[in-house]
Automatic annotation (TrEMBL):
<dbReference type="InterPro" id="IPR006091">
    <property type="entry name" value="Acyl-CoA_Oxase/DH_mid-dom"/>
</dbReference>
<dbReference type="GO" id="GO:0003995">
    <property type="term" value="F:acyl-CoA dehydrogenase activity"/>
</dbReference>
<feature type="domain" description="Acyl-CoA oxidase/dehydrogenase middle">
    <location>
        <begin position="119"/>
        <end position="213"/>
    </location>
</feature>
<dbReference type="InterPro" id="IPR037069">
    <property type="entry name" value="AcylCoA_DH/ox_N_sf"/>
</dbReference>
<dbReference type="InterPro" id="IPR009100">
    <property type="entry name" value="AcylCoA_DH/oxidase_NM_dom_sf"/>
</dbReference>
<comment type="similarity">
    <text>Belongs to the acyl-CoA dehydrogenase family.</text>
</comment>
<dbReference type="InterPro" id="IPR009075">
    <property type="entry name" value="AcylCo_DH/oxidase_C"/>
</dbReference>
<dbReference type="Pfam" id="PF02771">
    <property type="entry name" value="Acyl-CoA_dh_N"/>
</dbReference>
<dbReference type="InterPro" id="IPR013786">
    <property type="entry name" value="AcylCoA_DH/ox_N"/>
</dbReference>
<dbReference type="GO" id="GO:0050660">
    <property type="term" value="F:flavin adenine dinucleotide binding"/>
</dbReference>
<dbReference type="Pfam" id="PF00441">
    <property type="entry name" value="Acyl-CoA_dh_1"/>
</dbReference>
<feature type="domain" description="Acyl-CoA dehydrogenase/oxidase C-terminal">
    <location>
        <begin position="225"/>
        <end position="373"/>
    </location>
</feature>
<protein>
    <submittedName>
        <fullName>Acyl-CoA dehydrogenase family protein</fullName>
    </submittedName>
</protein>
<dbReference type="Pfam" id="PF02770">
    <property type="entry name" value="Acyl-CoA_dh_M"/>
</dbReference>
<keyword id="KW-0560">Oxidoreductase</keyword>
<keyword id="KW-0285">Flavoprotein</keyword>
<keyword id="KW-0274">FAD</keyword>
Length: 375
């Protein structure tokens, strides 16, 4: 019995073919440079990688969330920074599809479908885990809002053409005074400092600066005061996607480690002949398989319209932690060669770390789970 339907298998194979042809040959070079391979991103547009989650009614491919996560696992198993570029654009899509009016969904869908990336701007220097501490303001001025503030660590911050921004519309209301807006770059959004990251270096992460950026009030997503709820809904779905990325990285690390263990000879026999190595590989496989099941379970709950808050946080935290452990063990199996940039496993270890940090750190996932359990 296959874990996947025929349709899912053909999606996986389409993505694998694309990655092998367009990204794998250049990824080491772009990892060194710390740059987004824009030519490959544009080729990704041709096969609709920016449209996977956008519903068909708004010009997208409209995959189920399960299928979407399966595709994300496949992308990440080849290159997690490249998949982050599209995944982060989808965070903006998620926000508009969750909170937007029919008109906003159509507008945003058309914009993305023309071959543009989006970005989701929540984090600020004092507002990471404490997301409600946002200080960027959106002040009403006639039929417009004027935005001021700086967001940090924004994926696609330097390359997106459209942003979903969480800003304060009423400071006196605390978390209920946050609102979400669609903001086109053409309205005067500036990109600031680019992060020189140690992992997912094929993705772009920058500050995003709003200095008297004027937007029409029709760009407000939903009602004033609903921004925090919108952001949390976006992140809940995004967490399952993060789990998929972490599973993809694990899969790749395990394949490399198992192959290496069969060929590396010490004391006259392959290192794979040692039970110590076999058990390490078996534990890595247990982590991959169980994290994938948790990720698929959360995605299916989401597709079924069930409450998937605990499952999403559990999948993200578990897969992220497992990916870190599995990639560290893969480096261990490669010995000194694992520590060298000449071999591919150190990159996987660097890339894996982000899955314990973004879209809510794994400590915050545990807080979310405990909060839901103890409510
Ligand atoms: C590469 C990258 C891409 C990103 N992309 C985006 C993006 O596209 N959009 C966006 O809005 N943001 C993005 N982020 C931001 C990311 O979501 C935040 O970095 C993350 O939520 C953590 O916030 P922080 O960095 O401020 O850490 P802090 O909140 O300062 O946390 C520091 C440490 O303290 C722990 N901690 C904090 N509070 C608690 C608590 N109550 N209990 C226990 N432990 C706690 C944290 O788990 C962490 O270990 C990105 C970050 C990175 C690194």
């Amino acid at each position: 019995m296959s874990l996947y339907t025929e349709n899912q298998l053909s999606l996986k194979s389409m993505v694998a073919d694309f990655m092998k042809k367009e990204v794998v040959p250049i990824m080491a070079e772009y990892d060194r440079k710390g740059e987004v391979p824009m030519e490959a991103v544009r080729k990704g547009f041709e096969i609709g990688l920016h449209l996977l989650e956008l519903p068909e009614a708004y010009g997208g491919i409209g995959l189920s969330y399960e299928d979407y996560c399966i595709v994300q696992e496949e992308l990440s198993s080849y290159e997690a920074g490249f998949s982050t570029t599209f995944g982060a654009s989808d965070l903006a899509v998620k926000a508009v599809m969750n909170a937007g009016s029919e008109e906003q969904k159509q507008y945003f869908g058309d914009f993305i479908a023309q071959g543009h990336l989006g970005a989701f701007c929540l984090t600020e220097p004092q507002a990471g885990s404490d997301a409600a501490a946002v200080r960027t303001t959106a002040v009403r001025d006639g039929d417009d809002y004027i935005l001021n503030g700086t967001k940090c660590f924004i994926t696609n911050g330097g390359i997106a053409d459209i942003f979903v921004v969480i800003a304060v519309t009423d400071k006196s209301k605390g978390v209920k005074g946050l609102s979400a807006f669609i903001v086109e770059r053409s309205r005067g959004v500036k990109s600031g400092k680019e992060e020189d990251k140690f992992g997912i270096r094929l993705s772009n992460t920058t500050d995003v600066i709003f200095e008297d950026v004027r937007i029409p009030s029709k760009n407000l997503l939903g009602q004033e005061g609903r921004g925090f709820i919108t952001a949390m809904k976006v992140l809940e779905r995004g967490r399952v996607n993060c789990a998929a990325g972490a599973v993809g990285i694990m899969r790749h690390a395990i394949e490399l480690a198992a192959d290496y263990a069969k060929t590396r000879v010490t004391f006259g026999k392959p290192i794979a002949a040692n039970q110590g190595i076999q058990f390490m590989l078996a534990d890595m496989k247990i982590a991959e398989e169980s994290a994938r099941q948790l990720m698929l379970y959360a995605a299916r709950l989401c597709d079924a319209g069930e409450n998937f808050q605990i499952a999403a946080s559990a999948a993200k935290a578990y897969a992220g932690d497992c990916a870190m452990k599995v990639t560290t063990d893969a480096v261990q199996i490669f010995g000194g060669y694992g520590y060298s940039r000449e071999y591919p496993v150190e990159k996987l270890m660097r890339d894996a770390k982000i899955f314990q940090i973004y879209e809510g750190t794994n400590q915050i996932q545990r807080s979310v789970i405990a909060g839901a359990m103890l409510k």
